[in-house]
Specification:
Arc Repressor Mutant, subunit A, five-stranded mixed beta sheet, D-Maltodextrin-Binding Protein, domain 2, 16 helices, alpha/beta, 49% helix
Length: 387
């Protein structure tokens, strides 16, 4: 089943019953009649195929399934009830329509993604906009785009969707059907050793769990992380972290080295920084963390920066250029471990002290990992500690 088969008002009632312990107490909280809240609970239990409460003479006792689900529902409703948003005005159909519009890049894309008709999508977004008294989308030329308010609301809805989908997946796992997964944003320094080893370790114990990897730089991955498209981001941490909606946890320290092809004129010697500065370099573009460390390496020695005919953060491109030229680069050894073992490349010397980078995990501050997601993070830590 999909989360869109559920009713947000009914889910709010489930949370109230769990929190207050009786139907009668929940009635006043959600402004529903006793028959209505009883019917809401019955519909949710039927839709989920799971009993959520044990009816006892002194109240309603949550089942293990309810204890799993209610925490997810509470988090989802918390995301929906953001600033300037009355959750009573948000329905599943309205939430689905706005997300489809945001993700599809327009109403045609939303129609193709959902199978809903254009009139129903327009009506749902317009009704939500009127109810909240905020313009959520506007036409610019031939395209419809979200306003700033619409983009903010879409992010909240995405995070609510993540919580609801996690809740359904955990219920399925409780019944013995594993549908849970984890989506990892992999930055360059995580891909060579730690992340593959952690995935292998994790899947040995959780073979039915789906692990999806999205590769990119931090700039490419941070917004998908914030939007709930990816669950965690693994790679170089930012120091200091100035984004209060994100949380960083270190795994290990990475020390870069100067790398070249095996027959480079400086190979098998102990070159000074002045000798290194005489050769052309391949480094990332200005602003990239490793580029900043490269610049610092020469600035501390009082040397002018060497020529950089090629700017690239792609290890594949850098590797091929190094093999066929006298270029130098600054990379972590793990990034070219296979090439070093094969003898195609060589580490001419270690970078001076003070250029180390902390590699770790970045998550949303509001992230609530499922059991298997927490196990995956634990495996990352175990692999990093064993290295």
């Amino acid at each position: 089943m999909e989360i869109w088969d559920l009713n947000l008002r009914h889910l709010e009632a489930i949370v109230c019953i769990a929190d207050l312990g009786t139907m009668s107490a929940a009635v006043a909280s959600v402004n529903l009649t006793q028959p209505a809240i009883t019917q809401a609970l019955a519909r949710v239990e039927t839709t989920l195929g799971t009993q959520l409460f044990e009816r006892r003479h002194n109240g309603m006792v949550p089942t293990p399934a309810a204890r799993l689900l209610v925490e997810r529902l509470r988090a989802a409703l918390g995301h929906i009830a953001g600033p300037h948003v009355n959750p009573a005005h948000v329905t599943m159909s309205r939430m689905r329509a706005l997300l489809a519009l945001a993700d599809g890049g327009g109403y045609d894309g939303a129609r193709r993604a959902t199978g809903l008709s254009l009139p129903s999508l327009h009506r749902a977004v317009n009704d939500l906009s009127l109810a909240l008294r905020r313009r959520l989308a506007e036409r610019r030329g031939k395209v419809v785009v979200l306003t700033e308010a619409g983009q903010t609301l879409a992010r909240a809805f995405r995070l609510a969707r993540v919580e609801l989908e996690a809740g359904l997946a955990e219920l399925e796992a409780l019944r013995g059907h594993e549908t849970r997964g984890i989506t990892v944003g992999a930055m360059p320094l995580s891909r060579a050793r730690v992340l593959p080893a952690a995935i292998a370790r994790f899947l040995c114990r959780h073979p039915q769990v789906r692990v999806s990897i999205v590769e990119g730089s931090r700039a490419e991955l941070v917004e998908p992380l914030r939007n709930g498209v990816i669950d965690i981001m693994v790679g170089a941490l930012r120091d200091p972290l100035v984004e209060p909606d994100l949380v960083q946890e270190p795994l290990f320290q990475s020390a870069p080295a100067v790398v070249a092809h095996r027959d480079h004129p400086l190979a098998r010697s102990r070159p000074t920084l002045a000798q290194l500065a005489a050769y052309p370099w391949i480094v990332g573009p200005p602003g990239a963390p490793l580029r900043e460390r490269w610049e610092r390496m020469f600035a501390r020695a009082g040397l002018a920066r060497p020529r950089v005919p090629v700017e690239s953060g792609s290890v594949m491109i850098i590797r091929q250029l190094l093999i066929g030229s006298d270029f130098l680069t600054l990379l972590d050894r793990d990034q070219v471990a296979a090439e070093l073992e094969a003898g195609w490349l060589t580490a001419i010397r270690a970078a001076p002290p003070g250029l180390e980078r902390t590699i770790g995990v970045t998550t949303r501050a509001s992230w609530r990992p499922t059991e298997v997601q927490a196990a995956f993070v634990a495996d990352l830590k175990a692999v990093a500690n064993a290295a």
